[in-house]
Amino acid sequence: MAGRIRDEDVALVRERARIEDVVGATVMLRKAGGGSLKGLCPFHEEKTPSFQVTPSRGLYYCFGCGEGGDVISFLQKLENLSFTEVIEHLADKYGVQLRYTDERGPRVEPGLRQQIIEANKQAAEFFSEQLAAPDGLAARQFLDSRGFNRAAAEHFGVGYAPRGGRDLARLLRSRGFGDDVLVKAGLIRSGGWDFFQGRVLWPIRDAGSSVLGFGARRLFDDDRMPAKYLNTPETPVYRKSHVLYGLDLARQNIGKRHQAVVVEGYTDVMAAHLAGVTTAVASCGTAFGDDHARLLQRLMGGDAFAGEVIFTFDGDAAGQAAALKVFGGDHHFIAQTYVAVEPTGLDPCDLRLERGDEGVRDLVARRIPLYRFVMQNVLDRHDLDRVDGRLAALREAAPLVASIRDRSMVGGYARELSQLLGMDLDEVRREVHAAASRGPRVEAEPAPEPVPEPAPSGVPWPDPHERELSVERGTAQLLVARPDLFGPDWSGLTEEDFRHPAYREIFRAVTRAEPTAAGPEWVQALREVVDDPTVLRLLAALGVETALRRPDAAYVTAHVASPQVLTVTRRIDDLKSKLMRTNPVEHQAEYNQMFSTLLGLESTRQELVQRSVITNTDLPL
Asked: What is the CATH superfamily name and number for domain 112-238?
């Protein structure tokens, strides 16, 4: 009968395997007060950390999904391991010699997962040694051609699989590993031959530096395997959709800098790290997917929208297709997502060879938001000089804007889209609203035909958290709550000062309603001139909101200047744009007239800014 691990050894494993270290290898933990640590839960998707670790008690608990326990149950849940496998894994990692009860029976051998991890570790050491052997010359020459010296190879653990075909199997058998384990580890084939032969190899490690598998590149033309790159097959420890090359080296910096740079290959990761971009990782033998995104999200930690994930793509059609695919899974990221495009088509490794380390760093520094890259890609497929082309482009691009996770950015992107299309902002907003109502996300690939616009469903609902509209919302709230504090003709406010249709409808209701004192009667008067259900809901919302300070006539007078400043600023921007497109020699009179108007608008803006100063830090919520 198989023996059982002694209780005192299990207790010693618990003592040495500190929960903050084990959990911290997967989740970026930050101090939360009271001796606790917080991070993003690895067991469910979330944007605000609700996963808490209490080192003094050796426990974890997620207030979001209810998962909790100790360091052992954490690994059991995360890695789908048995209790014994977790104990043996931690004992090996923290140097605990396990003893088993019932010594008369056969000793319980380590679990399969731990045997595979150990076999991979010894294989990585063997491959590294073979790189320096005479047979490894071709691999060394390849690395040298890519700009990597011996120190770089040792840093990344690069190795070489001999061409003999049985060298690794012979070594590992001599060290007690059975063929069944080596086949399940993906180190040898069922016929007994080494899985990797005559190739340069990169060990693929998890965040805790355990070797999970290998990636290999062909070196010789007579290689029997046709694929240029070959990866460890799926094993109990290696699942290509769950691993990232370079994660062991990048993990700490990803957490510290709140940044992850995703490149496409092993040599690209090496080039990036050597160039100082030490947050670079790459997927292994598969496209970057949702599970990879969740892994990076947990490691970056922080609150929603903290940090950035940067993808490096070529500027060609393949790079654009890759960006669209990433966009489809962008909702899994807590961070803002960017694209670093190299127009020449050079990958980071080639870029380092041609332009040095600075070239790689500049590539990352030139990143642009993923949404902007995808949006421009969509617009480039349409003839914007034609009305039907602009409309088709709008209908295809609107879902991109509607799907932006950070709602405070939706307004800005809608305005940018309207400028790129040369279309009215309200028309763009209506289409974005219609796209949002059709579903929370858009597909990565554009629809083959434009989706027909649905019947008008009323005024779109304004996001109360959209910073760009905070001044409009505050002004509308004052109009609803304290109309008695406004001057004649509503202190000079006009419909132009309200860009969002819902707030504009509130102002229209104010100008149509019968004048009355502030209070229930005034709100009722407003409701009587409104028939749109969205505007009625907004009236109710504004009616219960309060300002950060008690408003008075001076406060309202100053506050009203804020939307007027924005209106005048928009006029100035439009006029400057027109001036730039006007030839002052050919159209001197028109140019001079516009310039004079511009000076007057600038003066008006300065007066309004001075009037609005007192509200800059005191605007209503």
From this structure: DNA primase, catalytic core, N-terminal domain (3.90.980.10)
